[in-house]
Design goal:
single chain, Fumarylacetoacetate hydrolase, domain 2, 261 residues, nine-stranded mixed β-sheet, five-stranded mixed β-sheet
């Protein structure tokens, strides 16, 4: 099996709504992270989500802590729902999911194009005002095309868009730095007890990942367009949800997002 075979297997799983049982042949098709990312990009091209030489407009990026390797995956534009709110939740009921879960995040939007040279020179301590023009509360639906018993090889997960299913974005607000260590987040799922977190971003601040993410996007010489969006990691962990669920997320002082599944 090669990477194109793996791509086709994932596309078939998506089309037929039949999760793949991972095998040693699947795992052997991926030599490294670059191979897994090539499967991501080729899958999006096959689905006509982006052109072969295009930088996708929506991404997820993140890691469990700053010492871990960040993972990056493009998101299908058809699965991105903008301007969701408590009064008007994103309607994800038409989407097909295998085993959905949700993550509460902050999304960032680039104010300007970023060249490979600019990405290479960027540091974690750089001022991002002027680089980021807006932020939004977001809810990612995490959904895997693999049968995952907890031992799924990380590269297979990465090749499957890092288990991305869909994304609900709240209204965009002007970017402003805040005391992220004190930022409060509240997650409501149906009538379950509210999940509340404060200062729980795994990287300390959402913008910390920007240099690594932008170097990933520009590694083959492409310039990242203004308006490109990235979600930056969960504040509340991974929360399994069922079909029919109503999900609401509030970040105090920053905004809200909501969806129905």
């Amino acid at each position: 099996m090669n990477t194109l075979d793996l791509r086709d297997a994932l596309l078939t799983a998506r089309r037929e709504q039949q999760a793949l049982v991972p095998t040693t042949a699947h795992a052997a098709a991926l030599a490294d992270v670059d191979a897994a990312c090539a499967v991501q990009h080729a899958s999006g091209v096959a689905l006509q989500a982006w052109a072969p030489d295009e930088v996708p407009g929506y991404w997820k990026s993140g890691a469990g802590h700053r010492q871990a390797a960040l993972t990056h995956a493009p998101l299908m534009p058809a699965g991105v729902h903008a301007d969701s709110s408590l009064a008007q939740p994103a309607d994800l009921r038409p989407h097909a999911f295998f085993k959905p879960a949700i993550e509460c995040e902050i999304a960032l939007r680039l104010a300007c194009a970023v060249t490979p040279a600019q990405a290479l020179a960027m540091t974690h301590d750089d001022e991002v005002t002027g680089l980021i023009d807006a932020m939004a509360v977001s809810i990612e639906v995490v959904d895997c095309r693999w049968v995952d018993d907890g031992a799924l090889p990380p590269l297979l997960r990465l090749a499957d868009f890092q288990s991305h299913g869909a994304l609900a974005l709240g209204p965009w607000a002007p970017w402003r730095e805040t005391d992220w260590s004190q930022q409060h987040c509240a997650l409501h799922v149906n009538d379950a007890p509210v999940v509340e977190r404060k200062g729980s971003h795994p990287l300390g601040r959402p913008a910390w990942l920007l240099p690594i993410w932008l170097r990933h996007l520009t590694r083959h010489g492409a310039t990242v367009p203004a308006g490109t969006v990235v979600t930056t990691g969960t504040w509340t962990g991974l929360t399994p949800v069922q079909r029919g669920s109503s999900v609401q997320v509030r970040f105090a002082g920053l905004g809200e997002a909501a969806l129905v599944l």
